[in-house]
Amino acid sequence: MFPTVREVLALDPVRNGAPQVVAGAAGLDRPVRWVHVAEVPDIATLLRGGELVLTTGIGLPADDEGLRSFVTELADVGAAGVVVELGRRFTDHLPRCMVTAAERRDLPLVMLRRTTPFVRVTEAVHVLIVNAQVTEVRATEEIHQRFTELSVEGAAPAEVVSQAATLAGCPVVLENLSRQVLAYDAAGERPDLLLDGWEAHSRRIAPPGRTAYDAAAGWLVTMVGARGQDWGRLLLRWPPAADTTGTGGTPPSRLTILIERAASTLALGRLIRRDAEGLERQIHGSLLAALLDHSRPVDEVVLRAKALGVPLERRRLVGVVVRGRGEDGESAEAAQAWLRDLAEAVGQAIRDVKLTGLVATLDDRSVGTLLALRPTDDEPHAVDQLAAVLRRLVGDAPHRGTVDGPRTGLTVAAGSAVDSPREARRTLMEARQVADAARHDRRDVPVFRLPDVGLAGLLHLLRDEPRVQTFVERELGALLAHDAKHPRDQLLGTLRAYLEQGRNKSAAASAAHLSRQALYERLARIERILNTDLESVEACMSLHVALLALDAIRDA
């Protein structure tokens, strides 16, 4: 906001006086808060710091000790500098005692060789200060207005960071406390250069205080959090070379205001979304969605994932989907809360087994993760270990319930490993399809894979194929039409029990809670409706396949 001593010396009214710095050149970048004309020796008692003192010296002490005290007292109160006009008290040069005292305290001491109207100097400097203050106020107002709008709109962290970078004209990075990048805006620079080796680079940026500037690293930093709970840092790059004055000074105060206001907006947004998914989970979810629907270039997803601490290149990628069981009478809110907890548990399990991966909820029934395995990792063992740790965290055994039963376990499904991020969609889709198909499987399988789901899995993969749907209608259409017309006389369940029990009529009667006579009568009716022979192995096999396909279609 304030001009420096160096900038004041460059003003025309001062340059006309032929200024010469005789001491304290190291302090020329001190800000000048005001200009004060003084001809009394005890002026220091009237100052508050930051003043540039103008004097002709006519009222200064006559002895060396008094002149030395005059300079020392000004330095003690934080004066920006002293400008002495030659000609009235001092003719050709300033006393050596004043020069030595000023040099010792790095207090700029300047002599004007020509007569200089001090009023012109004060006017020029004060106009500079007032104009800078007005500009600063306007910039501050714009900052507050922009971030207030973002807070009201509930803007996402990426939007807040982007707005901060736009207003500052500098790269801005939001990271969590583990130094993983949550959002960034490179402000026109190359993102790969900005984020390469970010964690190690960030750990070297450690200025003291809640908001501070690390001059060595060239970053302005502020903590992000509320209610005593910090969860991240916001960093704005301002290398000393960015100072257009060439002074190498600290960032202007408006940037400090900007970064603190942006941090407040981020913290407020976090509080507003405290019942939603964690911030990292949201970012992971957006990246997984981008891989599934190709909404972003794969190279961008790879770059952002790497900044999050999940390298996808030169890794074996394995899609894993975890499905939970629904509770009877469970509300939608409770189900979503449990799903969010499951996502956090999957993330914790990945950390516990020392793996990396993107984790997020995929839909209202499942959590997905894309594991990034090192070349030395044993893929089947790593996934099995993850499933075991996850079940221990959640407190579940392997899934063994009925389709409509309570949440008695988890279904964990894995896709085939791939070697490129461009193939990540394939392993994720396969894992999701296997998880869907495995919901009807009652075996104790820690991790389902495509070979484990057999025919049901194949039919699930083909459920959208018109020829499969035509086959189901041809085999079961008449029976489905009958059940639709007679809701109290459903026969599809009887057929299912008969086929699932291997055409054992006694076992089928028991499974369907029917007497043997009632079962025989219902099977006879099914034969008439479908015009088939239920004693035929081939006919029953065709009907069983049609039932599995119907389940796959209905579960889509």
Give me some keywords for this one:
556 residues, alpha/beta, 15 strands, PucR family transcriptional regulator, PucR_C-HTH_dom, PucR_C-HTH_sf, CdaR-like_regulators
Tell me what the structure shows:
It holds the Pfam family PucR. Residues 7-129 form the Purine catabolism PurC-like domain. The protein is an alpha/beta fold. 48% of the residues lie in helices and 15% in strands. The chain is built from 20 helices and 15 strands. The protein has helices spanning 5-9, 12-15, 64-76, 96-104, 118-153, 157-168, 191-195, 198-203, 253-272, 279-293, 298-307, 332-352, 379-394, 424-437, 450-461, 466-485, 492-500, 505-511, 516-530, 537-554; strands at 19-23, 34-37, 51-55, 81-85, 109-112, 172-176, 181-185, 211-214, 219-226, 229-237, 316-324, 357-361, 366-373, 397-398, 409-414. It has a five-stranded mixed β-sheet with strand order 1-5-4-3-2, with helices on both faces. It has a five-stranded antiparallel β-sheet with strand order 7-6-10-9-8, with helices on one face. Helix 3 (64-76) links the parallel strand 3 (51-55) and strand 4. The model is unreliable at 244-248 and 397-408 (pLDDT under 50).
